[in-house]
Amino acid sequence: MSATLGDPYLLATYALPSKSAKAKGKSVAADEHPYVFASHSAVPKRDDGQVTLAIQGDGIHVYDLADLHPISSHTLGPSTSFASAPATVVAVEDEKSFRRTYVTIQCSQEAKAEDAGKIIWSWKEEISRDIGSSQDKRSTTLPHEAAYVLAPQNLDSVLVVARNGRLTQTDPDLNVLNSWAPQDALQTVVKLFAFARRDCQFISGGVPPNGVVLLMFVTRGEDLFVQIIAFGHEREMVVLEPLIIPIESVDDIVDVSCDASGHASILESNGLWSPYRIDTRNGKMSVTATPSCLHLKGLDFISKKKLKTRSQVSLLSLGSAYVLLAGITAAPEIALLLWDIQYGVLLHSHMLPVPSTLEKNPSAIAVSLVQGSSTQALVVLSPANIKAGSSQLRSSVLVVPFAVPRISTIAGAMGRAAQGAPWLEPEHRAAPSQDAGASPYDSGKETLLEKLQDAVEEERIADADKLFFEWAKRKDDRWKGKAVASAPAGDGDADGPQDADMEEGDPSKPQGETKTKPIRSAFDHAFVKRVLQIVLQPEDPAGKPYSPKICRYLLTRHLASNNMIDGGLLSVLLQHNDWESIRECLFKVIDIPESDLIRTLHIVVQQNRARSSLEEDDAMAVDQPKIPATNSFLAYILEYPASPLAWRKALREHFADAEDLVCLLNVLDEWVAIHTAKDLPLGLSEVTVNEHGIPVVASAVNRKLMRTKGILLPTMENILGFLQAILDSSFLRLLQSPSSHALIQRLSENITPHVTLSADLESLRGPLAPFAKAQMKALAEAGSGRTKESVDWRKRRRQAQEQSAINLGPYQAHIFFVLEGFSDTASKDASGDKSGPLIAQLVAEKDFAVAETRIVPDDEELIRESVKAWSATGDIDWIITTGGTGFGIRDRTPEAIRPILERDAPGIVHLLLSASLAHTPLAALSRPVAGTVRGSHTLVVTLPGSAKAVRENLTALLNAGVVSHALDLLRGGTGKEVHSALAEGRDPGLAGNRHGHEHGHHEHHHHDHHHNSHKHASHDGNFPAASRHRISPYALISYEMALETIYRLVPNTEVERTPVTPALKGSLLAEDVYAPHDVPASTTTNMDGYAVRSSNAPGLYRVLTPQVHALATPLPEGSIYRINTGAPLPAGTDSVVIVEETQLVTSTPDEEESEVRTLVQTSPGENVRAPGSDVEKGDLVLQKGELLTGTGGEIGTLAFVGRKEVAVYRRPVVAIMSTGNELVDLQGSSLKGSAIDQKSGEKWTGIWDTNRPSLQAALETMGYEVIDLGIVKDNIQAHVDTLKDGLSRADLVLTTGGTSMGASDLLKPVIEKHLEGTVHFGRVTIKPGKPTTFATIPVDVNGHKTTKAIFALPGNPASALVCFYIFVVPALRKMGGWAEAKCQLPRVRVQVMDSMRLDPRTEFHRVIISAGPDGLRAKTTGGQRSSRVASLSGANGLVVLPQKQEGGPTELKSGEMADAVLIGEIRME
User: Fold this and answer.
1) pLDDT tens digits for 325-380?
2) Which of 682, 1055, 1159, 1432 is the most buried if burial means most Cβ atoms within 10 Å?
């Protein structure tokens, strides 16, 4: 999702009061009290919420954002004015919903003058559909002014804050609960924010786990700091130590933005906009500046006095690092600018004209942004400075829709730099005029830069270090007002990993705090860039001395970015051989491209290979730079945030040598083996709580990289992800390297246990997954300030295992068709290729199989070699190229192809040009070529690069049957079908198309259509048998192509809301499920024992029980409380002594415990669970797309979090029917195995209908509803009527019989001729089940046109059941919302115990799979004749036998390994 702004629309507009309560005849500035106050509040079970407006001299009005209508109004008259924004909250009291509204009164006839700004009025009204004024108004006077009034939805309290930060917490009726006053009463609150505690990712421990966190940005003298106060649900209040914000001057602050993720920013009157990050490191909270400082221009507030600027610009955080800026331009216009402050880019902008109700003067307009819903913001436009009583001016409130991603990523910022250029000053600009505020380059900076450059150019590196660190120390002293030790000359690395040797570095160790925190404006983006350019000398860095200490000082403080240096910071450090700084970049620089990382990794691999090839010689190694070990550097690379697609591209670009890849695979194999050998960590003895209050394993706190046996070990997830990138990018290259084969096989063997383990733990997945996800999410958000992309690790592991073997499915597909694109642009960015995907789509619609696509640059040699290599395989029938056929300088495709053509095809060239010239005369500039490649039977056709021209050309080639006819001739065919079609006046495209009647049915070709012995054959059931096809007219397609067709064409079922009952088993979730409340809801015990105070020493205590002591009453001294697992702790207790650690001393007459001696002293929290420790309110417990299995875990989880109903994909309803006059219903006939023709008196043996009962049993076992259509006789009308009935009642119709070439096999012609359906395939190269048919039928469902699927399976029972499992089950799963990769039944590797003969078709051999000490073994069920249903009796698997190849083996021998499809439960030997 990209960040966008929608078109604003008007919510409300208000005229200024005729007699202003704000001022009587004098000028009033909007900065003092705006004419319109606005606030937004959430409404339970409503997404949009409501907006409350306080209109000076008017009253309070509440609007519903869903329909923009007012829902409440309190008219107060022109004498009333307000001193704060209103606060509205909706709450349920006594089972009724009430709306409470609060606001501070500045002036009113009811208020005393000395109480101005201290009076709070509140209204309580029952929510109804009628709009009216509530009479339930209360007035409360506080001892201090009330500049801010907040009523958070998730806190049953009202927070009132004065301008100096003094705070009062009241209950909803404004009775005081808590209060707090700052030490310095002269401080000033610049802006404040309130966030839900569970959303705050930067809060350390020691605060209530639930409630609200209040952040006040406060100025005190020359300092700016953040005061954080946390409020809990039990009305507790925790005041944290203030956090200093590094800024030089507080006088120029115009506005502040802040988000719950910790992203904040400060805008100054000179246009400097500085981003900050509030975060917790090593248990301590701090505010740090980030390097993407912006210097704005083009807005009228810049270069004006601060008092005149606050009303002209406004900031609003939209989540993560996304900030909306609203400002007035000189035009004047209202600019709405959506920025990503983390990367300093403008994502979207919107310009609004100034409303006619406002003066067309920038200084006379006040603009303010107010937080709305998660997708809407409010813009308030008011007069800024007017004479009271004006009747011409009005205030307006606009709603601005927006959409932003959940987190800010570099991918969303890439390519956006140019958009912000009109609003940003150049980095090196002339000094501004005197009234323009301070220049970002003051004289001290310029002097430093000049001296620094002189010292570096003269190679006085020690002097350069001294100059820089002394200057940094002076800046810190000026900011803090006291001396702060600067980094010594010998220690530029004050933050981050402190290992002397990068190879031995361990990023998992706790990192030290920053010794010197540089201030933001002193280290802005432009200044840091200049320093790096001077120090690193990127123009000619090789061999020149430089200062690594200055570079590391900037790196460790997150001030440097990769793009500050032309060519990349990492590249220049590489030329300096500064590996320690390179390592710092991997931890502190966020914008390093994957290509630079992989290039550096390649250098490490090559140098380590070269070093290992030399003999160990200490004397030779003295002057050599310290190169990190391959495994250590690769570990850092794997932990760097990156895109798998970018990994693959970079690996293809830089790792051309397979031996270099083998080095990486060896490291990955070593890591996988270590993970495999590790014990399953199920023990809970090392669980602790980290600084964010999250339970974690003690050994894994703050660690992504682990050190095991002296080796840095990445996570298994990252290892498999990178391994997959290597295989995807270089698999064919590795196959050509014999040294990699054993390694790939070993990797496969090492990964297999992880797959087995995941299968063994499958029964625990449901109960444990919600908690694991919640903890992972909490750790990611708390530790990094952003949410890491969710990855299904089971899927990743299985993919990695499957792709590790030599016979990988994705790399072993049958090659029929190759698509190639030639473009310099597209070769660098595949997303720019539009023609390639279009060609793949068009040819797939004609049932051509696309074997491979490739994009190469416009280079003749590369193009020619690619085409020659493909055609040389002998497996490629048709190569299509797109692009490079015009008159451009780089258009060289014809020149590349023409020399390798053996036979030109000028007719195809003429057809291509004619097709395009019919649409545009510019097609005359196209230079296509076509023909067969020398030494092969491959046809190559070159198409233009335009998607429009590609569609025109391919339509001409495909629809007329030209290509099909040409390929048939190249394969050795006679082409008689096309000739016959032309002679008979039919469309030759139908004769040549693979999907149509491809094979000829005449022994000789005749042009005389009146020769009765050679009339045209048909497959219409109305024709006599002698007039029908003798050979199937349907193309014989592969098993893989059949599955692909099914996935593409089966329709999906709709989503429905279903009660949570056991009947849900087998359904797929259609929504994410979040916990509606904390679990547990209060502090509870997880052990049987006695609730105690942790301060209680071991000794004798009286035992209390729930029958004699209330939970809310504090436990008396000398007592302990008997408690069972899961029960809440009584007041005053904080831990539990388990029963095993106590002794019974005395008991009551009825044998109840009276006194017990405790043997141990507990620590706080021992054996107890905190509220929300299992599941926190709002946690994701089940994800969309998860299967609700019959093991009960998922359904139990839904019940666990209190979900009564849930959205699932409706399971398809299946109608089944059998066809054939010979069939007898087992339960519906009195005949015992035979039927008698009464007319002829001849007796014939009938056949019991086997297919319907067996298919119905299989379907109902899987949870599908079945409609039994019975047995249909071999009659066309009976087929039509029954199929229509089934289509009207079911989602899919499943038939058996009538699919072959017999005289009574009517199903396919009925579908095509009588139901207007489309048979997508009618023959498949499998055994059994060759005549399996798949079709779609157009139907009308409640006036809506749609399609439904029909599967026509063979009538032989074994064939029908086998095809059901390999075709119908995947189709039903796809219809029911399953991901395509999971639709097939699971496959396993088995050892076959019987030799099995191979067939030219893919065979599914029925077997019994059993598990033994040596793995899975498969034993045949005997004869595999398709009619022998007994071969499926007891079968629980289908061994997949490959097609027999010419010159290859004729059988799969006993003891060999093979894939098997599981259709039942595995047996134990």
Assistant:
1) 999 998 888 999 999 998 889 999 999 888 888 888 888 888 999 999 888 999 99
2) 1432
Distance of CA 603 to the CA centre of its chain: 32
CB 1005 within 8 A of CB 1016: no
Which residues fall within 8 angstroms of residue 1015, CB to CB, at 6 or more apart? 1027
Three-state DSSP class for 1363? helix
Q: Is the previous residue joined to 383 through a cis bond, with omega within 30 degrees of 0?
A: no
Lowest mean pLDDT segment, chosen from 815-829, 1172-1186, 1335-1349, 1384-1398: 815-829
With residues binned 3-state (H G I as helix, E B as strand, rest as coil), the percentages for the chain, rounded to 5, are 30, 30, 40
Strands 1344-1353, 1292-1296: parallel, antiparallel or unpaired by DSSP? parallel
Name residue 73's amino acid. Answer: S
The whole-angstrom separation of Cα 836 and Cα 880 is: 9
Does 190 score more than 90 pLDDT? Answer: yes
Residue 280 CA neighbour count, 13 Å, CB half: 20
Using only C-alpha atoms, what is the Rg of the chain? 38
Half-sphere exposure of 502 (CA within 13 A, CB side): 24
In the numeric block, the tokens 């997880």 are attached to 1086
Is residue 379 helix, strand or coil?
A: strand
Burial 775-792 (b: 16+ CB within 10 A, else e): bebbbbbbbebbeeeeee
Contact 227, 184 (CB under 8 A): no
CA distance 726 to 732: 11
Are the beta carbons of 1375 and 1292 closer than 8 angstroms?
Answer: yes
CA atoms of 777 and 306, how far apart (whole Å) = 42
Average predicted confidence (pLDDT) for the chain: 79
Alpha helices, H only, 829-983: 835-845, 860-872, 893-897, 906-917, 947-959, 962-970, 976-983
pLDDT digits (tens, 9 = 90+) for 121-165: 999 988 864 454 445 788 999 989 999 999 998 888 999 999 999
Percentage of the chain exceeding pLDDT 70? 77
Q: What's the whole-number mean pLDDT along residues 38-49? A: 85
Question: Residues near 797 by Cβ (< 8 Å), separated by ≥ 6?
Answer: 716, 720, 751, 754, 755, 758
E strands along 1278-1343, which residues? 1292-1296, 1318-1321, 1323-1324, 1326-1327, 1333-1341
> What angle, rounded to 10 degrees, do the helices at 579-588 and 630-639 form?
20
Cα–Cα separations (whole angstroms), residue 1179 to 35, 585, 707, 798, 1173: 41, 34, 31, 27, 11
Structure tokens at 1147: 């008991």
Instruction: Print burial letters for 1132-1148: b (CB count within 10 Å at least 16), e (below 16).
Output: ebbbbbbeeebeeeeee
Q: Give tens-digit pLDDT for 600-627.
A: 999 998 888 888 766 444 444 444 557 8
Strands 1055-1059 and 1205-1209: antiparallel
Contacts of 1353 (CB under 8 A, 6+ apart): 1251, 1294, 1295, 1296, 1299, 1329, 1332, 1333, 1359, 1360, 1363, 1364, 1368
Q: Which residue has the higher pLDDT, 1415 or 504?
A: 1415
Q: How far is CA 1394 from the centre of its chain?
A: 47
d(CA 804, CA 798): 10
**Residue 1392, CB-side half-sphere exposure with 13 Å CA sphere:** 23
In this structure, the chain runs to a length of: 1469
Q: Are 1195 and 1065 in contact (CB under 8 A)?
A: yes
* Beta bridge pairs of residue 1101: 1156
Sign of CA dihedral 341, 347, 351, 355: negative
CA 457 from chain center: how many Å? 49
Whether the pLDDT of residue 660 is over 60: the answer is yes
Query: 313 pairs with which residues across the strands?
Result: 327
Calpha distance 74→132 (Å, rounded): 8
Distance CA 108, CA 82 (A): 9
